[in-house]
Amino acid sequence: MRLLVVTQYFWPENFRINDLVAELTRHGHEVTVLTGLPNYPEGSVFPQFRDDPQAYSRYEGAEVVRVPMRPRGRGGLSLMLNYFSFAASASLLGMWKLRGRKFDAVFAYEPSPITVGLPAALMRAVKRAPMAFWVLDLWPETLQAIGVVRSSMVLGAVGKLVAFIYKRCDLILAQSRSFIPQIQKYAGADSRVEYFPSWAESLFDLERAVPAEEVPAQPDSFNVMFAGNIGDAQDFPAILAAAESLKEHSHIRWLIVGDGRMGGWVAEEIERRGLQHCVLMLGRHPVERMASFFKHANALLVSLKDEPIFSMTIPGKLQSYLAAGVPVVAMLNGEGAEVVKNAAAGLTCAAGDHAALASSVLELSRMTPEERASMGQNARALSVREFDRDNLIRRLEDWLETMTRDRYPPSISRGV
């Protein structure tokens, strides 16, 4: 198939869409990626890209078509301008750059924002190619949950935008089962929505990994590792409150691998609370190196704020944690917590409950290595059973081929 992938985020930024594109090209599909300038999460365009943009014009056999956009910067207004600048640039300049090109299907990747659906819907109409839309973040509910938008009028307008985009999709993919009724509320009950979770990148082989040198040696420590975006949704106030309550337990360390909009605040709070000895910020590193950091982890931490919308979410990092075969400590509500609990892959507590998080970490640290290893084995087994990368991508290929065949039988020619 000739596939057009529309995504605001792409390599050298670390997102799962990179792995999907690479695998689709390996399966023999002709993939073109329409994307912006790499600037996540720092908020400014990556220096290595500015120095040599041409070096980032192809990725694992896929052509990468980039359009200008406003970097994320800092602050809510700058972020909104970032979202809409990509949508406008990908719609106008992207259409020009792809003039005369034919595609069998359009695939839009939406971890956030929903506005990525605007250029994707335009491409669907002009190219006369059916569109699949992978929803990893629900708008407008997430905007309200993290306090970005409080106006009911604005939230209502965003809801209308969501409905506009969803109703132009031939297939909508939901990252959790709980997402499906929320999506159908905007897309219509007769819309085609399928459960399509994330998977772990094929990089988490802890047996072969060499421990990351960035982690200071501390014999007999119990390391709780958080890896990923340091944002408002991850509820770092609760995480730091748990760390503060355990700071007299000298064997417990909290290792934070990643970066994000709240990174500066977290660093300041660590110093203010006197947690420098037990909470270490190790910075952002390529996904290819995550196994070397996970090698140090006795438990992997996943958390989301106590908001209804987040109880419907399976955090993307959870699949990577499960594949690593390390016990999970989850400060979550809803579907994500149930995944961990039902598989006996770790310990869970309610979102926002820092005291329960501290208790769970202490309980894990007091378990025998054999007990923790059993949890890790359960995690790995669940990863293979429910979130196998190869099976999921094959399922996606089948959906895309069926979608294309159903919308445009062979006798019908497609657009330019």
Automatic annotation (TrEMBL):
Q: Which InterPro entries match?
A: Glyco_trans_1, Glyco_trans_4-like_N, Glycosyltransferase_grp1
Tell me which Gene3D superfamilies the record gives: Glycogen Phosphorylase B
Q: Kindly provide the name given to this protein in its UniProt entry.
A: Glycosyltransferase involved in cell wall bisynthesis
Where is each Glycosyltransferase subfamily 4-like N-terminal domain found?
16-198
The protein's UniProt keywords, in alphabetical order, are: Transferase
Q: Where is the Glycosyl transferase family domain?
A: 219-380
Q: Which organism is it from?
A: Paraburkholderia phenazinium
For molecular function, the Gene Ontology terms on record are: hexosyltransferase activity
